[in-house]
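Re: duplicated header lines in exported structure tokens

Our pipeline writes sequence and tokens for each protein into one text file. With two proteins the header for the second block appears twice in some exports. Here is an export where it did not happen, for reference. First protein block:
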Amino acid sequence: MDILLAMAPPPGDGAGSSMISTLIMFAAIFAIFYFMIIRPQQKKAKEREKLLSNLKKGDKVVTSSGLHATIAGLDEKTCLLDAGNNIKLKFERSAIANVTASKEEATL
């Protein structure tokens, strides 16, 4: 019984300062997670949304499966891709991974 009493923190102001330091530590951990994980993911999602909304007919794109094609037509959620030799495939806009050349760059 004497061992348990010796290990217990002393009563009084020690518990209040311990609580504050614990809260500060949790706030610091949350701030680190926010700036290192959450914020970059939000920024990347905004850039991807901007890429998909700025697609135009004639842009050269690469799909997530690796298909290199030119956009032949656009719908609200899908796009028609021309893979060459008059082969046209319909893909979801979300399948577009990268725009390699826009229509303006292709004409220059």
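Second protein block, exported in the same file:
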Amino acid sequence: MLKKHIKVYIWFFLFILLFLPYRALNSLVLLNIFGNDSTAFNANDVTVIISILIALLSVLLFVYNFIKEFGLKTKKKVLIFFVSLLVLSVMTFFLREAILKGNLWDYMEVV
């Protein structure tokens, strides 16, 4: 039973789990490829696009796994689903904003 809950609710922590690996990728690879030129497509734009994709992916994977593991057969399950989806959406929005501030080159010193 706990395995099902972990499989469904792990997507709440997707941004947190990917923060440090993405930060390393951002500084080692993306900055070298795209640069920090504010007049053209740059590493900040890639970071914004990837953060949007991670946010959408976390919500879609949560919805898919919740329906697959628990179903929406009772009113209680539907209520739990919508409350969880609301919490995930709000949490994802705020985590996305926080992680963007930690990974955009406007906020960091470029060495």
